[in-house]
UniProtKB/TrEMBL annotation:
The chain crosses the membrane at residues 137-160. Residues 84-97, 169-178 have a biased composition (Low complexity). It comes from Streptomyces ureilyticus. The lineage of its organism: Bacteria, Bacillati, Actinomycetota, Actinomycetes, Kitasatosporales. This is DUF2690 domain-containing protein. The keyword Transmembrane helix applies.
Length: 298
């Protein structure tokens, strides 16, 4: 059996879903626990090997706290190509155009029996009606194909990020990196979300499990020059706090989505010699438990 490569539309959808998965901080097994789809199914969806159900896309957007409009638009384009709906219109239009052409044309009148003694007349062009019918059929086919192509390209440009819609010539002028660098550094990271700032080189400085079963962890990114705290396994009403010698950063466990996934504080700019400290205050007047770690000098 020959395995066909995924379409460009499905590749773009899979890339968007992988980015959402990274934001959630969940593994494939974690996604399987929190959705109706298995670990192997998520592996196929995120790898572009299979088109995910619409509900799976919505569930991942919910876990990543991302509005589902863009991803559902990408899914619609990928699903349209996969199911063949994008070409159905062209096929039906082609058939209709051919039938129209045949109907408008008139068959040439039979030629009289040739006179053996006369010189054979030159071949006559087909009647005007036949040429007109064929021309209309061709024009109908071209119009339907162009309409489908223009609609697909327009929809893709609307939902793609700005950098994907740029001409190839402008993108080739700058080197492409598979691991883009962080989007902030030092004070520019103060109060920013680490998931959106691409601080992916973070080190885990300290981890602690609290009496309620929740986990508490301190992270530090050398490239970003900032630290933050994260927690998981929490309960609604818990509160996460973190400080790095400056303003207090906090995050509340507000709903079931928070309790079922990672919750992080915003970043705090820091430097070697500063001690990072994170605390989890359990809901309903529970005990406050903390973990701290000094940032060693470089």
């Amino acid at each position: 059996m020959t395995r066909t490569a995924p379409s460009p539309e499905r590749v773009r959808l899979a890339a968007a879903l992988r980015e959402l998965k990274e934001r959630t901080g969940l593994s494939l097994a974690g996604l399987a626990e929190r959705t109706a789809y298995s670990k192997s199914s998520w592996d196929r969806y995120l790898g572009g090997k299979a088109l995910p159900p619409r509900q799976a896309v919505q569930d991942l957007c919910r876990l990543a706290r991302e509005p589902d409009g863009r991803c559902l638009a990408l899914w619609e384009i990928a699903e349209s190509g996969w199911s063949g709906r994008a070409t159905d219109g062209a096929s039906s239009s082609t058939g209709a155009g051919t039938r129209t052409g045949a109907g408008t044309g008139t068959a040439p009148a039979p030629a009289p029996d040739p006179d053996p003694a006369a010189t054979p007349p030159p071949p006559q062009p087909p009647p005007e009606g036949t040429r007109t019918g064929r021309k209309r059929a061709v024009m109908a086919v071209l119009a339907s194909v162009c309409a489908v192509g223009v609609a697909t390209v327009a929809a893709a440009l609307l939902v793609l990020p700005h950098d994907e819609a740029e001409p190839q010539s402008s993108r080739s002028a700058s080197p492409v990196s598979s691991t883009p660098g962080p989007r902030c550094r030092g004070n520019a990271c103060e109060g920013r979300d680490p998931r959106h700032m691409k601080c992916r080189d973070a080190d885990s400085l300290a981890v602690r499990r609290t009496a309620t079963g929740a986990w508490l962890e301190l992270h530090y990114s050398e490239k970003c020059g900032a630290g933050w705290a994260r927690t998981w396994g929490t309960r609604i009403g818990d509160r996460l706090e973190m400080t790095a010698g400056g303003p207090l950063r906090s995050a509340d466990i507000a709903d079931d989505v928070d309790a079922e996934s990672y919750v992080m504080t915003d970043m705090a700019a820091t430097r070697p010699g500063v001690t990072l400290r994170a605390c989890l205050l359990a809901a309903a007047g529970g005990k406050k438990e903390c973990v701290s770690a000094p940032l060693e000098g470089q």
